[in-house]
Amino acid sequence: MAAALANASAHQQIRELADRTRYEASHDTLTGLINRSRLLDLIDLRRTHPVNDSPEAAFALLLFDLSHFKEVNDTLGHSAGDALLVRVAERMSDGLALGEQLGRLDSDKFALLMAPEVDPEVAAHARTRPSSALARCRARWPNRSWSRASR
Questions:
Q1: DSSP character string of 76-136
Q2: Mean pLDDT computed over 9-37
Q3: Backbone φ, ψ for residue 63 (5° rounding)
Q4: pTM for this predicted structure
Q5: How far is it, in rounded angstroms, from Cα 49 to Cα 32?
Q6: CA distances (Å), origin 114, targets 31, 39, 54, 60, 103
Q7: What DSSP element (H or E) covers 64?
Q8: Model confidence over 25-80: pLDDT tens digits?
Q9: For residues 147 and 145, what is the distance between their CA atoms, to the nearest angstrom?
């Protein structure tokens, strides 16, 4: 009986380790957002398997980075830069619509993969999200030096 319990516990630990390894392979460790590899997989999937099998089905990809982010790290330190990246990721994630994926590509670069068949006006309006997310960060920490989002 003890051997069976030990076996069950070992199998549970192996499953948890495998789940954690799969998660870490597809997500950014700092922000928890999907990483570049997972984003490229999703883009490829949407390109090769469009919604409703319609070749006209479209999606939008918005790329942005934080201008002068290096200055934040240089003047306030890497922990402040990391905190800024986490906060921007949180703020950007707050407004995600169904079917959207936000990813961190590297350093200060992010991508928003919008839902299939996204309306062009909605996609155009989404360009303001990074600046809006930074504005909410500024409101929380008003006495800090800030980057701005560039598109």
A1: H-HHHHHHHHHHHHHHHHHTPPTT-EEEEEETTEEEEEPPTT--HHHHHHHTTHHHHHHHH
A2: 92
A3: -110, 135
A4: 0.71
A5: 26
A6: 19, 11, 17, 5, 11
A7: strand 61-67
A8: 999 999 999 999 999 999 998 888 776 666 566 678 889 888 888 999 999 999 99
A9: 7
Report the amino acid identity of residue 150.
Answer: S
Q: Which of 41, 65, 108, 119 is catalytic?
A: 108
Task: Give catalytic status of residue 108 as yes or no.
Answer: yes
For residues 71 and 40, give the distance between their C-alpha atoms in angstroms, rounded to a whole number: 29
Q: List the strands of the sheet with 109-113, edge to edge.
A: 101-106, 109-113, 61-67, 148-150
Whether residue 65 contacts residue 110, with contact meaning beta carbons closer than 8 Å, is answered with yes
As given in the structure block, the two tokens for residue 98 are 């169904």
Residue 111 in this model has a pLDDT that exceeds 50? yes
